[in-house]
Amino acid sequence: MSGTLYVTANMHFHEILGVLASLLEWTQDDDINIVLMGDQMRKKFNKYYGDFGKTNVMVLVAIALDPRYKMRFVNFSLRKIYHLDFKKVEELYAQVFEVLNKLYNHYSNVSSITKNDDSSSFNTNDNDGQNFVGVVKNKQMRKIYDEFYENDVEDAMEKSEFEEYLDAPPKKINNETFDILKWWSDKCTSYKVLASMTKDILAILVSTVANESTFSTSGHVVDDFHSNLIPKAVEALICTQDWLRTSNVCIDLEQLLEDVENMRKKLVAIWKIHVEGISSCCF
């Protein structure tokens, strides 16, 4: 999840769901040790993901904008996570749908403003210099048109891009070769507003921290400039970093400086003995 050169927003929730599925499987294992381990890990999992309020809703929005899954998979996943709690599933589903709808309305309004600005370039004058206005002068035909729009057109209203996209079944695509950015690029003419919205959402990175930096502090200490440090010096730097970060430990700075000075004197003495030994061997 630390990739920066490819889309990760639509992948994060799948990883979370995969971890939860494994934990649920372990808690039902025949081995009591695996069951206990699964229970402990589930408690830690719930600490970060047990409450929907702790989860960034944009992670689920990104899933809805993945043509392989859409809102159907969001609903399916919520039923897996909150088993038998149908009321909670409905509430969370409605919350995600509301966020999606608000986002679409916002991008739709921005798009309509842009279209209105572009429409000023159209010329409405005919060749004779007279304006043509399509007004129905026959009163009877006006009544017929009004009745037509009232009874038929309202019942057969065109669906928005948002509704068309969600109503269409998810695409069964080979996950190994699927390029979500290319798919939306190909559909940008059909889903102009949605494509613009998806472009911004999929650009969100789940994490910008490298894996080795997440699980190891040595990468912050032993860089290219400190690679010649002896193991004891590296250990001292890492331990000092931990001590400084711990608020309940009282550090005697003067004593530490004194210890460093004593270590420096010892190293100097060792170095002198080493140099004198080399000189005696040479002569």
From TrEMBL:
Record-annotated membrane-spanning stretches: none
List the GO molecular function terms: DNA binding; protein dimerization activity
Domain (hAT-like transposase RNase-H fold) ranges: 2-107
Can you give the residue ranges of the HAT C-terminal dimerisation domain?
Answer: 161-244
A Pfam family found in this protein is: Dimer_Tnp_hAT
Read off the SUPFAM superfamilies from this record: Ribonuclease H-like
The protein, known as: HAT C-terminal dimerisation domain-containing protein
